[in-house]
Design a protein that fits this description.
Number of strands: 12
CATH superfamily of the domain at 29-247 and 274-282: NADP-dependent oxidoreductase domain
Largest sheet: 8 strands, parallel, barrel
CATH class of the domain at 29-247 and 274-282: Alpha Beta
Number of helices: 12
Structural class: alpha/beta
CATH topology of the domain at 29-247 and 274-282: TIM Barrel
Strand content: 5-15%
Radius of gyration: 20 Å
Helix content: 25-40%
Shape: globular
Bound molecules: NADPH dihydro-nicotinamide-adenine-dinucleotide phosphate, D-galacturonic acid
Length: 336
Amino acid sequence: MNPSLSKFMLAHTPKHILDPQPTMNTPLKLNTGATIPALGLGTWQSAPGEVKASVIHAIEAGYRHIDCAYCYQNEDEVGEAIQDVIKRGIVKREDLFITSKLWCTFHTRAEEGLQKSLDLLKLDYVDLYLMHWPVPMNPKGNHPLFPKHEDGSRDIDLSITHIDTWKGLEALIKKNPDKVKAIGVANYSVKYLEKLLAQATIVPAANQIENHPLLPQQEVVDFCNEKGIHITAYSPLGSTGSPLFKDETVLEVAKKHSVGAGTVLLSYHLARNSSVLAKSVTPARIDENRKLITLDSEDLQKLKGLSANGVTRFVYPPFGVNAGFPDKPDGIDLSG
Ligand SMILES: NC(=O)C1=CN([C@@H]2O[C@H](COP(=O)(O)OP(=O)(O)OC[C@H]3O[C@@H](n4cnc5c(N)ncnc54)[C@H](OP(=O)(O)O)[C@@H]3O)[C@@H](O)[C@H]2O)C=CC1
Ligand SMILES: O=C[C@H](O)[C@@H](O)[C@@H](O)[C@H](O)C(=O)O
């Protein structure tokens, strides 16, 4: 094209076309070639009896990405919701991005774990299947999901490593490409990822980690960006009770843009090219959480200040394991 013509077009093209506002369904690239919608609905702690209505409401409100897990013990209802919206012609299966996760007591039984989730979700395939934690737990312990020793500590399976589990997931996708479109991990630190990548034949498509301005995890985010592993942020509002809504810096940035605190907390991840999961069973909040904006460098600098004097992690189950995160140095090292 004539360079002066292209200069003219650039000068006269509205800014929003050159720099489109992010939306809840802005597609972010995975290393498989597929895309993941920027915002997903979280379903952890969404109670049976509530979760179906919340998933239906979210999909009717435009959500296309739903985050599920076998251990949330509500996949059956999530599946009913998905069936309902598909049956009513609101969406087609291929319009949705559904994630599920292999629970810790299923590390030696990836195929069984996947099939259980598919059956509950009433789906032929999931778009993404994650190893929920790099922590194998005893499959034959005193509880199918949370086996414990007599002293109350979690019954960890020391006979395998998370790398064996990953090899199981690699075999799973190779054997069942029609049932699982991508595999990934969750709760992986740089240390565990380095060990995994040294022996992996498939690079995880995603790493789902706790992430918000009080826990930026910049080292994991940078490492994953460099290796082509997409980051999905969980607990972006500070998890149960959304404590980050009260943070003064977040409120200040929200005021500047005339938006709610949630918009700032969710948009933070888009600015880092990550997708983000927000859980709610409240229709008005599910609606409110859809709004994303472009934060500027001044906003990001302010939010960076929130972790300057230390980080806060809201979700760290009592596995008794050192998962390699610098702020959680205690427990046994299972990195392999
Ligand atoms: N891979 C992993 O190990 C983990 C994955 N996750 C995934 O990430 C998702 C999100 O993280 P989660 O820990 O649930 O926490 P979130 O940070 O999403 O916070 C959820 C809490 O915020 C409240 N909330 C939601 N929207 C608003 C709003 N607009 N205004 C005020 N309060 C609001 C919810 O209340 P209410 O529902 O009552 O409206 C709930 O109490 C999970 O649901 C799960 O899918 C989470 C943790 C670990
Ligand atoms: O995904 C959400 C969390 O990881 C959750 O699955 C765990 O915290 C679980 O409740 C546990 O106690 O180990």
